[in-house]
Design goal:
Helix content is about 70%, strand content about 0%. By secondary structure, it is mostly helical. It has one domain: Growth Hormone, Chain: A (Up-down Bundle). Helix 1 packs parallel to helix 7 and helix 11 runs antiparallel to helix 12. The radius of gyration is 21 Å and the shape is globular.
Length: about 450
C-alpha cells in the first residue's frame, strides 16, 4: 500500500513510501542479492592485485601494481557511473510480467558470469580491461534497478532495519569476495577464484527473482520515447535536491577511504609485513574475521541508534572508528607475520564501516523520491562506483611512488590517505537536514517530472 503526496511547487505527484510492513524474511530476501553484488569487484581487484604482484601479467604490471590496476579499472568505473542511473531510470518506467526491476537483474547477472569468465581466462592486459568494461556495464545494468527495491517496498518505519541488513549483506559480500580472493592467491587458482565470484552473485540473484514481490507499477511514460526517459536520469532537477547531493558527496569520500584497505591489502601483507605469497591465506582469513566480527557487533545496534538519535551522529562516529582502525594498520610493523595491531585495526575499521553502511542507506532513502527510486539510488551509487576508481587513482600511484623510494611503505602511505578521506567525508553531513526518523522527508515523496 502506498500513498500519494504532493509537494508545493513540484511538477508531479509522486508515490510515497509504502505503508505495509514487511516480514523479517522479506527484508532479508531483498538484501541478500547485495552479498553477491558486493563480492564481485572486491574479490576481482584482489585477484588482479595477486596476478600482477606475482608476475602472472608481466613484469611491467608487477613493477607498478597500483598504476596498472588503475588503468585496468578506470574506464569501467566511468561506465558504471553512467550506466547505473540511466538503467535505474528506465526501470522506473518498465512494465513487464516480471515487474519493473527483475528483467534487468536477470540479464545483468547472467552477463556478469560471462564477462568474469573472460577475465579469468585472459592473460593480456588489454583484453582484461575490455572485459572489465563489459562487466561494469552488465553489473550496473542489474544493480541500478535493484537498488530501487527499498524505496519500492520498505515502509518508512522499517527503513532503519532494512538499511542495517543492506549494510550487513554488503559487508558479508565483501568478506566473501575477500575470502575467495585470498584462497585464489594462496593456491595460484586465479581463474577458479574469478569464476567463483560470478557463481556466487548468480546464486544470490534468485533470492530476488523468485521470492521478492514486484513492487508498485511502472511510472507512466506519457508517450515519451525511451531515449527521452533515459535522458531524465541526468536532468538538472536533481541539483535542487540539496540533502541528497550532500549525502552522496559524503558517501563518495567515506567509501574512498573505506575501499583502500580492501584494494591494497595483498600488497600490504606481502610488501609491508613481508609475508610470503603462499603464506598469505591465514593472515587474510584473520583480517576477514576481524572485519566480520566488527561488522557483526556494529551493524544492527548502529541502525537502531540511528533510528533513535539520528543517522548523522552515527556516521560521524563510524568515520572516526574506521579512521582509527586504518591508522593502526598503517603504523603496524611485521617481520613475515601478522601483528595483533593489524587485527585490532581491521576489527575497529570493520566496526566503523559496518556502522556507516547500516545507516547510510537509511539516510539516503529518507530523501529519495519514492516513484523515482531507480533513478535516485542509481545516481547515489555513482559515489560507490567512482569511490573505487578514485581510491585506486590516488592510492595506487602514491603506493608505487613510496615503494619506489622505500620499498614496503607504499601501503602505509595509501592507508594514511584513507584516514584523510574518512575524516573529510564527515564534513558534508554538517549541512544535511535529516528528516524525522520513521517519516519520509519532503523530497521522499516528490517524483521527478
Amino acid at each position: 500500500m502506498t500513498a500519494e503526496v504532493a509537494i508545493p511547487g513540484s511538477p508531479a505527484v509522486g508515490i510515497a513510501r509504502p505503508t505495509t510492513r514487511l516480514s523479517a524474511g522479506s527484508l532479508v530476501r531483498i538484501s541478500l542479492y547485495w552479498l553477491g553484488l558486493s563480492s564481485v569487484f572486491i574479490g576481482l581487484n584482489q585477484i588482479l592485485d595477486g596476478r600482477m604482484a606475482t608476475g602472472a601479467l608481466g613484469p611491467d604490471a608487477q613493477r607498478e601494481v597500483g598504476g596498472t590496476l588503475f588503468r585496468l579499472t578506470v574506464a569501467g568505473s566511468v561506465i558504471a557511473a553512467l550506466v547505473q542511473p540511466t538503467i535505474g531510470t528506465l526501470s522506473d518506467y518498465t512494465a513487464s510480467r516480471w515487474g519493473r526491476r527483475k528483467p534487468y537483474i536477470v540479464i545483468g547477472s547472467t552477463l556478469d558470469l560471462v564477462f568474469l569468465a573472460g577475465i579469468a581466462f585472459s592473460n593480456d592486459l588489454v583484453a582484461i580491461a575490455a572485459f572489465i568494461m563489459m562487466l561494469q556495464v552488465s553489473a550496473n545494468f542489474a544493480q541500478g534497478p535493484f537498488q530501487g527495491y527499498i524505496p519500492d517496498l520498505v515502509p518508512a518505519e522499517q527503513t532503519g532495519i532494512a538499511s542495517s541488513l543492506v549494510g550487513l549483506f554488503s559487508v558479508l559480500g565483501q568478506v566473501c569476495g575477500f575470502g575467495i580472493a585470498a584462497a585464489a592467491l594462496a593456491t595460484d587458482s586465479f581463474a577458479l577464484g574469478t569464476l567463483a565470484l560470478g557463481l556466487l552473485e548468480f546464486a544470490m540473484m534468485f533470492s530476488v527473482v523468485v521470492r521478492v514481490p514486484d513492487g508498485p507499477p511502472a511510472r507512466d511514460r506519457m508517450g515519451r520515447s525511451w531515449v527521452t526517459v533515459a535522458r531524465e536520469a541526468w536532468g538538472s532537477d536533481i541539483l535542487r535536491q540539496r540533502n541528497f547531493l550532500l549525502i552522496v558527496a559524503s558517501r563518495l569520500l567515506i567509501l574512498m577511504g573505506g575501499t583502500m584497505l580492501i584494494n591494497f591489502s595483498p600488497l600490504f601483507l606481502m610488501r609491508t609485513l613481508g609475508i610470503d605469497q603462499h603464506a598469505t591465506f591465514a593472515p587474510n582469513l584473520a583480517l576477514i574475521a576481524a572485519v566480520v566480527v566488527g561488522n557483526a557487533i556494529a551493524v544492527i545496534p548502529a541502525g537502531r541508534v540511528g533510528d533513535r538519535i539520528g543517522r548523522r551522529p552515527v556516521v560521524w562516529a563510524a568515520c572516526v572508528m574506521a579512521a582509527a582502525g586504518m591508522a593502526l594498520c598503517a603504523t603496524a610493523t611485521g617481520n613475515g607475520s601478522l601483528p595483533l595491531q593489524v587485527v585490532l585495526g581491521a576489527g575497529l575499521f570493520g566496526t566503523g564501516m559496518g556502522s556507516f553502511l547500516s545507516v547510510d542507506w537509511a539516510l539516503l532513502t529518507s530523501v529519495v523520491p519514492g516513484a523515482a527510486g531507480g533513478r535516485y539510488m542509481g545516481i547515489s551509487n555513482v559515489a560507490t562506483a567512482m569511490a573505487g576508481v578514485f581510491s585506486i587513482a590516488t592510492g595506487g600511484p602514491l603506493l608505487d611512488a613510496v615503494d619506489a623510494a622505500t620499498f614496503g611503505n607504499g601501503a602505509r602511505a595509501a592507508f594514511a590517505l584513507a584516514v584523510g578521506y574518512l575524516i573529510l567525508g564527515m564534513l558534508p553531513l554538517i549541512w544535511v537536514r535529516e528528516p524525522p526518523r520513521g517519516k519520509p522527508g519532503p523530497s521522499a515523496v516528490a517524483a521527478a517530472a
